Amino acid sequence: MQPLSDSSDPLITAFPVALKSDAEAVLAIMPASRHRPLGSFSVVVEGRQVSIPERLYNDEPSAGAVASLSSRQRQLLNCLYSRHHDGMVRQRHLQKVIGSTDPWVVPFVVRLVGEYVVEILDVIRAGLRDLAVPGTLAHLAYGQFIVDNPAFFARTQRQVVSYWSCYYRASYATFRGYPGCTVLDLLRSAASDRAGRPWPSLAPAAARVDGYA
Fold this sequence. Notes:
This protein has helices spanning 20-29, 63-67, 71-81, 87-97, 106-113, 118-127, 137-148, 150-168, 179-195, 205-209, and strands at 38-45, 48-55. It is mainly alpha-helical.
């Protein structure tokens, strides 16, 4: 594993160091925020550690400013705004990158799996259908990310179960019916193929009794 970029800006260290100039171009058009990004999580992307903000508070840039960016820079912008404090902003920017299999996009999507907005889980479930097909780019990219970040994915699984239990039992009587369960199944399938062994399931015991495992 190689160290973090030497930049101290948390919106630059969210991406591999090779993308530093692109990240700087994105930051140059983002409106200033009165608050620094809140919290962070660290994961490994292509052998490099990156540190991604949990929440950011910048307003969205104007359409004209976004149009001045390259396609890759717009991708990075959408990744960053998928960490926005407003759930509708997160969903809107997620929808613009969910089809990408670039490895630096993957952790932003997986982090959203472990959050509480079920509408975002629906977007991810629809966007990651190819994970069920071994050999697809998505299957390989997400599988490799989980293999490289087992503790992060274990935490994600626990968060999905916890949010279902706390907020969505009334709407989804069993964990099997919850969109997050479907997404975890897809991700574990990709990880299992990449690792060459079954990936551990942290589904609740009742779900496994019901045929979940």
